[in-house]
Write a structure and sequence with these properties.
Helix content is about 25%, strand content about 35%. The chain folds into two domains: about 50 residues, Vcp-like ATPase, Chain A, domain 2 (Roll), CATH 3.10.330.20; about 180 residues, Rossmann fold. It is globular and about 70 Å long. The protein has about 250 residues and is of the alpha/beta class. It contains eight helices and 15 strands. The strands form four sheets. The protein has a seven-stranded mixed sheet, with helices on both faces. Strands 2-1-6-5 form a four-stranded antiparallel sheet, with no helix packed on it. It has a two-stranded antiparallel sheet with strand order 3-4.
């Protein structure tokens, strides 16, 4: 992995540093050793301790540079769980954005090719892939996947789409997927989800389903237990379909 940064954690405060860097805060000055190891404790010059942690997926979600609303970890989990993605699988992704999905899939061992239309967003995504340590497995391309489809010569195990024109790409899924491969689209509006479902059916894909993703945190106190009324329970719509060629 190209990025060596670690988290320094004290309570609910977190700092992202590379070995050899210096942290200056109200808790004092801390010079992070070059040979620092996750799981150890380091102290500022005032004796204030910090726990050293290696970056995990959930940490990356909080520390990747944002270029828009990223896919939530719970939605990434649904994509992985519904498609059975595994190390060594190949993924074609569009709508990179911050790169949360691409980073997660790359850290699971998948080989990801992802397209981002906005050149500035693409540059940020490349830096985020470096932070995630997946530059050897995730290639961020600047461009529109729909316009690039005719130049793609290989097939993939998974096609993931977070774009306004997702349905138009779903129509081409049989040309892009390995037999048994999946397409997963993430859409903010139910009309877009319906378009993806109809496109998948028209393309002859199987196992077509669309899910609204809702999650509520539970609160437990002396008065009783109930779902939290804070936060946003709904995030979006995930549509899945599978390419299963018919036998002649």
């Amino acid at each position: 992995m190209s990025d060596r940064r670690v988290l320094l954690v004290r309570g609910n405060r977190e700092f992202l540093l590379e070995p050899g860097e210096t942290l200056e805060s109200d808790l004092g000055v801390l010079e992070l050793p070059e040979d620092v190891e996750p799981g150890t404790t380091v102290e500022t010059h005032l004796g204030e301790p910090f726990e050293v942690r290696r970056l995990r997926g959930t940490d990356l979600f909080d520390h990747l540079e944002r270029t828009g609303a990223p896919m939530m970890p719970r939605d990434v989990g649904l994509v992985v769980g519904h498609t059975g993605l595994a190390a060594g699988d190949s993924v074609l992704d569009a709508g990179t954005g911050t790169g949360v999905l691409a980073a997660y899939l790359g850290r699971l061992g998948a080989e990801v090719t992802t397209y981002e239309r906005d050149p500035e967003f693409a540059e940020v995504a490349r830096a985020n892939m470096d932070l995630a340590g997946v530059t050897d497995r995730v290639e961020v391309r600047t461009g529109d996947l729909l316009e690039a489809l005719d130049d793609i010569e290989k097939t993939f195990d998974l096609l993931t789409l977070d774009t306004a024109d997702a349905a138009a790409v779903v129509e081409r899924a049989p040309d892009l997927l390995e037999p048994g491969g999946f397409v997963a689209t993430y859409t903010p509006f139910v009309e877009s989800a319906r378009d993806c479902v109809e496109a998948a059916r028209e393309a002859g894909l199987s196992s077509v389903e669309s899910l609204e993703t809702i999650q509520r945190e539970m609160e437990f106190d002396d008065r009783g237990s109930r779902p939290s009324t804070a936060g946003v329970g709904h995030t979006g719509y995930l549509t899945f379909a599978r390419f299963t060629p018919r036998l002649e």
